[in-house]
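Protocol step 4 of 5: obtain the predicted structure for the target chain.
Materials: sequence only (see below). No template structures provided, no constraints applied. The aim of this step is simply to have a reference model before the mutagenesis design in step 5. Sequence pasted as it appears in the construct record:
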Amino acid sequence: MTLNVYLSGEIHSDWREQIVEGAKDLDVSFHSPVTDHDSSDDCGVAILGQEDNKYWHDHKGAMVNAIRTRKGLADADVVVVRFGEKYKQWNAAFDAGYAAALGKSIIVLNPPAHQHALKEVHAAALAVAEEPSQVVEILRYVLTGSLPG
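Step 4 output (structure tokens):
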């Protein structure tokens, strides 16, 4: 069995790299949004033309990014949604809701301090992890039936 996993959410830490590295021996294909913040913010105006108004600048970028996000979520077997400590990731909450509407298996990854704020998102998830290594162990168990060491 191969799993197609979409890694959504916070882009300011190396959590994605930790999961990919930890799962390198598993039959998993990983996908994610563009994680270069400037490229993600500016893709719309870089491709479709400049905007003087910041609203339209952001709107163009959000629409172009949504093409990638919708494809990634639609194709995913599992969606991992990371909520980090420093920023409020409204886009991650949207991705979690979209994935839930699509009937996707969701793993939420967040620090314990966010438990209360994310209770509705957690209710839609099949697992809530605090560390990237726990996500890897969930994927390992799903694919192999093996419990951690």
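Step 4 remarks: Strands lie at 3-9, 28-31, 78-82, 105-109, 127-129. The radius of gyration is 16 Å.
Proceed to step 5.
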